[in-house]
Each structure stands twice: as C-alpha cells, then as structure tokens.
Write a structure and sequence with these properties.
By secondary structure, this protein is mostly helical. It has ten helices and no strands. The longest helix is centred in the middle third of the chain and has 19 residues. It is globular and about 45 Å long. The structure holds adenosine-5'-diphosphate and magnesium ion (MG). The site of adenosine-5'-diphosphate has 21 residues, from helix 3, helix 6 and helix 10.
Length: 216
C-alpha cells in the first residue's frame, strides 16, 4: 500500500473500498437480517441501510478526496437526509459528531477513539437509550469502550480489528436475551426476547466488514 492508502492517512481515500465491503457484508447476510426484522422490527431496516449506503457510494469519489473529519461529517449529513427510520438519524448523529470531534486534530488512534466515543455518546442521547435496551447501542457502546482501551496501549491494527470484532459480536449476541425497551421492538415487550436485535446485527456486520477490509 502507498502511504496515501493507509487507514490513518490524511484523506478518506479508503472510503469507497470500506463502503463496498459494508455493502457486500449486508447483502451476504440480507436473509438473516430480514428474518430478525420481520420478527421484531417493521421489515424496513435493510432497505433503510441500503438507501444510505447507495447515497454514500454515489458520492464516493468526492468523499474520498476529503480529510476524514470532513468525510465523517458529510457521511452523517447524507445519512440523516437519505435514510428514513431510527437508524438514519442515529448513524447520522454518530458520524456528524465524529467529524466535529476530530476536526483540526491529527488523525491518530487516540483521535479515532475519542471521536467514535463522542459519536456513540451522541447516539445514546439522541435515542434516549443506554446499553441493555436491545438496540444497536449494545454493539456500538462496548466497541467504543474497547477502542479507547486499545488506543491507550497503541494496539497494532490486526489486534485492534480482531478484538473489536469479538466485542461487537458479543454485544450483538447479548441482545438475544434482552427485552426491547426502545424502538418498534419495544411494542412486543416480552415477545421481543429470543431474537437478536436487527440493528445490533447490522452494526456488528458493518464493524466486522470495515475491520476485515482494513487488514486485507
Ligand atoms: P425504524 O425502527 O424507524 O423502523 P430501522 O428499522 O432502520 O428504523 O432501525 C431499527 C433499529 O434501530 C433497531 O433494531 C434498533 O437497533 C435501533 N433503534 C431503534 N430505536 C432506537 C433508539 N431509541 N435508540 C437506539 N437505537 C434504536
Ligand atoms: Mg424498521
């Protein structure tokens, strides 16, 4: 890889490749996600995410030329305006806050951890949600905390990707036994138990896809 292609380089040159990896992972798991969303959602979660990813990929070259904080902010605004549903405003909030937090700072692992952490806190405020309520926050929150810990020890990329992948998977699995108290699944009460939250599932798939693309 040339230095311009490194994940910590100044511009978001890797973004089109990461978006492609995310799109592939969602399509490969589309039936599994659809099953969960039919069971405890309203069946539109994949459609929502696809709309957002298509809108981002249409702007891929433009975003790739930006510095990462600007790209994150633009990703967030694009998601807010193109994706319906809870997930659009939540992921929009995540990326806009990441962009604001990282603005003007050198992009180090510490900056990434700070920015992602601030983004996840903003998602929690926006969704009025804490971990344990059977949402995508059950994946994002432990991943944010693990990222801070791994940044402190300056973990090398392969270890970072592996550990974050495991944390995301454990968070996703943890939603199976929870009763939903936020979002549409909360209308089902006790009957939401026994299913993985679709938003937690797609969060885990996207984190794993980005990680694998970074170490590939
Ligand atoms: P909608 O719920 O509006 O149909 P989506 O289907 O795109 O939106 O997304 C559903 C996912 O969004 C859920 O599986 C859950 O993970 C997440 N979610 C819903 N409400 C909240 C909330 N208040 N806070 C955090 N996450 C939420
Ligand atoms: Mg839905």
């Amino acid at each position: 890889m040339s230095s311009a292609d490194q994940p910590n380089s100044h511009t978001a040159a890797l973004l089109p490749e990461l978006l492609r990896a995310v799109a592939v992972a969602l399509e490969e798991n589309a039936e599994a996600v659809a099953e969960l969303d039919r069971a405890i959602g309203d069946g539109d979660h994949l459609v929502n995410l696809r709309r957002g990813i298509d809108a981002l990929r249409a702007r891929g070259d433009e975003l790739a030329g930006m510095d990462w904080p600007s790209a994150w902010q633009q990703i967030g605004m694009t998601l807010m305006t193109t994706v319906g549903g809870a997930s659009g405003s939540l992921y929009g909030t995540l990326f806009v806050t990441m962009g604001k937090t990282a603005r003007g700072r050198e992009l180090t692992l510490e900056t990434l951890a700070d920015s992602f952490g601030a983004g996840v806190e903003a998602v929690k405020r926006r969704g009025r949600v804490e971990p344990g309520e059977k949402t995508l926050v059950d994946v994002l929150d432990p991943v944010a905390k693990a990222l801070v810990r791994l940044a402190q020890v300056e973990a090398p990329l392969p270890r970072l990707v592996e550990e974050l992948g495991q944390v995301a998977e454990a968070g996703m699995e943890s939603t199976r036994d929870l009763v939903a108290t936020k979002g549409r699944a909360s209308f089902l009460g006790e009957r939401s138990r026994g299913w993985i939250d679709p938003g937690a599932k797609t969060a885990q798939l996207m984190i794993a896809a980005v990680g694998q693309a970074l170490v590939a």
